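dumping this here so i dont lose it
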């Protein structure tokens, strides 16, 4: 197996960032025939084990297809959490990164939660060690602690609220409206984006995502100039200069939904390129262009592919189901403490969904698409 070294921002709340070193292993490639055979065996194992797959849009397309075909879920991190907690299967196979598996285990402690590779991590999780984060919280006891889902269970356990990119802005807006001051961790770009959108008083941890931090505004502007008809879709983990150019800023699911709603045929996509598998399947007639990163040479940390999402493979799923590898184990007390702020988020999201459904109110969409003029 090939091992890749990844440099990430080892952040401190004081604002300094120093580079940290991590690694990711790339699974060996399978031929199309091997993939078909693997998928057949996995289908049978899922049935035998009363298991269901829960996959993120950034994992390999073959895993996304298999999750859908077998009645599982492909979604953003909020949808993955909700689906896993509500599904009656006794085993969840989470194809994504560790915080997603941990969230599933926190919400369903009695289920077996397996991952194709339990070492698949996230630079935001790595860049926010629980002890240091605890000291940050202790120093600001007057602030409501809001943490992004891309964190360890121990960091979540210190939080009042856990949020994902699909509901973070709305939750912070609601907290701001009731007068709360926020302590936010770990993604500095998402935190700053939410701060700009809501006007909330937010103290930010200084972490970043190795994928989204790489998008470059000047190059993106040049690409947009060459394709004036294109809508620009940006995940909010991207730097401010990049989100400033966006027609739509949103979670992975919100970006996919935007493709179906915007009156144009061409899209520039600033997020992990794994998402294009789903976008192309849903909208085969549309044209998708990858937003520029630092380049494909040595200076590119991710080249818009998350090295840890890439650790997920069909072989990994099969091994997990056969041998129980990649099983998530969590201390019960820690799980219980981390569960409360996640459940708050799920309840907020459920109430929000109900409000939108009952009023037929598309206010959220209107806000998302506010920048996009006629095609
Ligand atoms: P979403 O919740 O928008 O899918 O984001 C998860 C993530 O890790 C993005 O890098
Ligand atoms: Fe973490 Fe970025 Fe990978 Fe998402 S894309 S899992 S934020 S490193």
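and the seq i came up w/
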């Amino acid at each position: 197996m090939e091992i890749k070294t990844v440099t990430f921002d080892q952040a401190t709340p004081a604002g300094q960032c120093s580079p940290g070193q991590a690694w990711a292993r790339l699974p060996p490639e399978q031929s199309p025939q091997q993939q078909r055979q693997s998928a057949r065996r996995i289908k049978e194992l899922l049935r035998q084990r009363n298991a269901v797959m829960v996959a993120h849009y950034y994992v390999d397309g073959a895993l996304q297809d298999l999750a859908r075909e077998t009645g599982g879920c492909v979604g953003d991190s909020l949808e993955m959490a909700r689906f896993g907690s509500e599904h009656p299967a006794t085993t969840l196979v989470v194809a994504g990164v560790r915080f997603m598996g941990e969230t599933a285990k926190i919400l369903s402690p009695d289920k077996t939660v397996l991952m194709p590779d339990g070492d698949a991590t996230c630079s935001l999780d790595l860049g926010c060690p629980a002890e240091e984060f605890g000291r940050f919280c202790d120093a600001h006891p007057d602030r409501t602690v809001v943490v992004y889902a891309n964190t360890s269970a121990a960091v979540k356990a210190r939080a009042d609220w856990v949020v994902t990119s699909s509901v973070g802005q709305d939750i912070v807006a609601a907290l701001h409206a009731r007068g709360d001051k926020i302590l936010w961790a770990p993604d500095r770009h998402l935190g700053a984006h939410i701060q700009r959108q809501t006007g909330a008083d937010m103290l930010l941890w200084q972490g970043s995502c190795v994928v989204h931090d790489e998008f470059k505004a000047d190059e993106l502007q040049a690409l947009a100039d060459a394709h004036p008809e294109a809508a620009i879709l940006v995940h909010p983990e991207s730097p401010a200069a990049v989100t400033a150019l966006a027609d739509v800023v949103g979670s992975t699911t919100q970006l996919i939904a935007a493709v179906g709603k915007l009156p144009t045929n061409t899209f520039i996509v600033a997020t992990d390129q794994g998402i294009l598998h789903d976008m192309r399947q849903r909208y085969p007639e549309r044209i998708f262009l990858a937003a520029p990163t630092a380049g494909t040479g040595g200076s590119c940390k991710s080249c818009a592919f998350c090295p840890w999402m890439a650790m997920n493979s069909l072989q990994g799923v099969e091994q997990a189901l056969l041998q129980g590898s990649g099983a998530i184990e969590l201390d019960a007390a820690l799980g219980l403490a981390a569960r409360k702020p996640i459940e708050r988020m799920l309840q907020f999201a459920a109430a929000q969904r109900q409000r939108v459904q009952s009023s037929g109110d598309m206010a959220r969409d209107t806000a998302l698409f506010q920048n996009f003029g006629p095609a």
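Residues 76-77, 150, 164-165, 209, 235, 237, 251-252 surround 1,3-dihydroxyacetonephosphate (ligand 1) (CB under 6 Å).
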